[in-house]
Amino acid sequence: MKQPLHDRIRSDYEARILSGALLPGARLPTELELMRDYACSRMTVNKALSALTAAGLIDRRKRAGTFVARPRVHSMVLDVPDLEQEVAQRGQRYRYDLLRREVRMPDPGTAEETLLAGAGPLLVLDGVHHADDVPLASEQRLISLSAVPETEGVDFAGASPGAWLLKHVPWTQAETRIAAVGADRAVAAGLNLLPGSPCLLIERRTWRGDDGITLVRQHFVGSAYDLIATFGPAKG
Amino acid sequence: MKQPLHDRIRSDYEARILSGALLPGARLPTELELMRDYACSRMTVNKALSALTAAGLIDRRKRAGTFVARPRVHSMVLDVPDLEQEVAQRGQRYRYDLLRREVRMPDPGTAEETLLAGAGPLLVLDGVHHADDVPLASEQRLISLSAVPETEGVDFAGASPGAWLLKHVPWTQAETRIAAVGADRAVAAGLNLLPGSPCLLIERRTWRGDDGITLVRQHFVGSAYDLIATFGPAKG
DNA sequence: TGGATAGTAATGTATAGACATAATTTGAGG
DNA sequence: CCTCAAATTATGTCTATACATTACTATCCA
């Protein structure tokens, strides 16, 4: 129960806002009033309110005061865990089968390849992720060798390239596209499905600064995988 | 360009961590050393490091020091815009057709219904979202009338219930599940597809505090819709 | 009436110091 | 050599104060 005072102030108002007792637009007491309420110095109050500001729960305007923020409607946090960990957490055995490995120059006619690697060489890795020997996802990956030359010497047979990259290559930006598609012939063959079966397509590009690192396209068996995104404090 | 000093310290080290110049486990200078580096007081240094701690970029241990945090949690920001706005932004005409409206008690055998509304009544709304008169998504929605009694008097024929709720009912928590499924008979009929066609399933629950507000299940035509999630500064 | 100007109330940033807390290192005694 | 206690070091919390910044308010003068 040794809760710091600034944390108590913060959680007091966090609770009131999250419970709806303080509705969006409602005004909070000024720092001076809170100093009196909690019998503490202004810096302590300020630390609590700064934390709420950073969390996006309140808006503060000089001279005007402190107000409950409108919830940011359409941004949620999407957790994209590492596949190997994910499978292990479900208590299943993970395996990655490398089907193709190839170094080539980008096709100047394919925008996504030149966008990733400029004029530099590409490492192409195709494979399938398994959970308990059942195919879970098929993966086509491009890695820019000029951005990550050390990948050329790595043996990816067996280890997922995603996990290797995550551990060895820090990145600063990423973009993920999520869609539902029918499996084409190649994907269906890799996943042991009928062509046209619904698959969750996850396409991710990552950058470090301005340099493209990798572009990966994963097709998940629709019936075996889903994603969860959340907003606000954890629920269940 | 009037950047506060604590913010400059924070962004200096944020940049070094994100760029990989400081690898996970690396030790940062102590607060005393940073005071000298930046010629400022300890509180200023502390504010910068507290922000990095809150952002999960560093770990701090008493006596031991400050270290770059271990694994970068792979979480991204998912934008789930309002469908009506989304369609309008593409320059298309939006329409929502209400197919069913019904008030009933939750089925005690269906966990998701009692979880949403407890023992209170449910408003059931089924409909289809159109873009330029082409079906885009089919929607099955449950609303807890005890949490939002005012919905009972609203005429949802024509206006999307999602947009109405967003505007009138503040919520504090939400969870979204994303999956790829084949269209069942009912969904296929509403979307004018063949049964089994790949659809992006988006299932969202929202709460205010501990009270469930709404549970919505949307099936998007796979070929016509996708989601984008990003991490880091905007790219393209 | 209207418009510049001074006042004022709120947040934003920063300082210098104090004591609390936790973990590691060191030292004393067995 | 081992163990327990004390010193050390770095972070954690808090105070009291100061001045900066911003935007709203009121006032004065044309």
> Which architecture name of the largest domain in chain A does CATH use?
3-Layer(aba) Sandwich
Terminal Cα span of chain A: 24 Å
Lateral arrangement of strands in the main beta sheet of chain A: 5-6-7-10-9-8
- Strand tally of chain A, please? 11
Number of domain modules of chain A: 2
Task: Outline the structure in words.
The structure is a homodimer of 236-residue chains. In chain A, strand 9 (198-208) and strand 10 form a beta hairpin. In chain A, helix 1 (5-18) packs across helix 3 and helix 2 (31-38) packs across helix 3 (42-54). Helices cover 27% and strands 36% of the residues of chain A. Chain A has two domains: 5-68, Arc Repressor Mutant, subunit A; 77-230, Chorismate lyase. With 236 residues, the first copy, chain A, is of the alpha+beta class. The mean pLDDT of chain A is 90. The interface between A and B is large, with 58 and 54 residues. The structure holds a DNA duplex (30 and 30 nucleotides).
Give the SSE map.
Two copies of one chain form a homodimer.
Chain A (H helix, E strand, L loop, with lengths): L4 H14 L8 E2 L2 H8 L3 H13 L3 E4 L3 E4 L6 E5 L3 H7 L4 E11 L6 H7 L4 E10 L2 E11 L16 H8 L4 E10 L2 H7 L6 E11 L2 E11 L4 E6 L5
Antiparallel strand pairs in A: 1-3, 2-3, 4-11, 5-6, 6-7, 7-10, 8-9, 9-10
The structure holds a DNA duplex (30 and 30 nucleotides).
